[in-house]
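Box S1 | Example of a co-folding query
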Amino acid sequence: MRQKLIAGNWKMNGLSEEGLRLAEGIVDRRLRDIEHGGEISRACELLLCPPFTLLAQIRPFLGGTGIALGGQDCHPELSGAHTGDISAAMLMDLGCEYVIVGHSERRQDHGESDDLVRAKANAALQAGLTPIVCIGETESQREQGQTQAVLRSQLEGSLPELDGREAMRLVVAYEPVWAIGTGKSADVQDVTDAHSGIRSYLAECFGSDLAQGVRVLYGGSVKPENAAKLLSLDNVDGALVGGASLKLEDFWAIATSCP
Ligand code: PEP
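Box S1 (continued) | Returned holo structure for phosphoenolpyruvate
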């Protein structure tokens, strides 16, 4: 059975004081849960993806909590003359286990193509990180009935080159662009259809048994009010949470919604 993954993507938010306070708050909740038998900790793995600037400061707080640390992006090369960029090897060196690649904000703001996303995911794997590869359709693609075709084409273009036996090292995040940061989450039918299409594609790539090991997260306006419903759906193996991950109570309420 796939353990759910609840990942907080803080985006470009958090100066030291507030970022550390938030991380400490999550650690505190987690430790209290462990002390009381660890029910929530067994139900879900927690992942924090703060801005690069906070990774080194937050890392020491996470020792012994089982809370994982991740980057929000990485360069497709592991080192070299790329001023201002951060490599997957550097994230690994800081104690990260995951990195988000292909987030729609990067695809939009930085014109990132599927090819580039794939190269980043390959670099992540090479460095020993688990890539969280984000895909999702825009509102107009959805209105034109293109969701499944768009998701398939993004998967074809952005998934890393992975031996099927290593499929468990991959996480896919379905994040409909129109649902990100809008407060308007995809409904149960949208999510069910998208996730089963993704699982079918993974089965074509890796075979159905190995495809069962890949976690497919939903992201897009996940909040305490809709988390339990979304997280109980077949093929939804967790959530990539933006805005609500910046509020301790909301993030923890989402984590405690894991069935
Ligand atoms: C995200 O940016 O990955 C995201 C899902 O954001 P939000 O939860 O704010 O919609």
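The CA atoms of residues 149 and 177 lie 15 Å apart. The chain has a mean pLDDT of 96.
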